[in-house]
TrEMBL record:
Naturally occurring in which organism (per UniProt): Streptomyces anandii
Signal peptide: none
Main location: membrane
Protein name according to UniProt: Fluoride-specific ion channel FluC
Activity control: Na(+) is not transported, but it plays an essential structural role and its presence is essential for fluoride channel function.
Length: 154
């Protein structure tokens, strides 16, 4: 092969990934979608159970996000430090269920609605409180889970 032929081959676009790569990812995509449906349904049920009055603090979304962060903290400790989980557990529960349950988009929309309706202070309080509470929840959950594991191993 001559140098120009080799250069021509090098510049040709690469073939698409083999179909095997998609087939290997299909179960992951499926469990994330299934878990997301479960988590989003649970979140929606919470908002129906605890509706937010116009201009009021969105407590259902607030507690959903805080609880979801706490559960993610415990879950990550369990699957990284304790349990050799099946390869689909993390995408199903961590990404799917908890990703569908917690919600950044509703959080952002709630803030925008509060600000647009003249309740900017409530919106800013919600913004800060959710951020602080969610971070505290995940930190406390990870810390508590790790301490419980150490105590259990004694």
């Amino acid at each position: 092969m001559t140098a120009p032929e080799a250069e021509s081959l090098r510049l040709r676009p690469q073939r698409a990934r083999p179909r095997r790569a998609w087939r290997a990812q299909a179960p992951v995509v499926a469990v994330v979608a299934l878990g997301g449906a479960v988590g989003a349904t649970a979140r929606y049920a919470a908002t129906l159970w605890w509706p937010t009055p116009p201009g009021g603090f969105p407590w259902a979304t607030f507690w959903t996000n805080v609880l979801g962060c706490a559960v993610i903290g415990v879950f990550m400790v369990i699957i990284t430090d304790v349990w050799a989980a099946h390869r689909l557990v993390r995408p199903f529960f961590g990404t799917g269920v908890l990703g569908g349950f917690t919600t950044f988009s509703t959080y952002a929309v709630d803030i925008q609605r509060l600000v647009d309706s003249g309740h900017a202070r409530t919106g800013l309080a919600y913004l800060a409180a959710t951020l602080c509470a969610a971070l505290a929840a995940v930190w406390l959950a990870v810390t508590a889970a790790r301490r419980a594991l150490k105590w259990r191993q004694r």
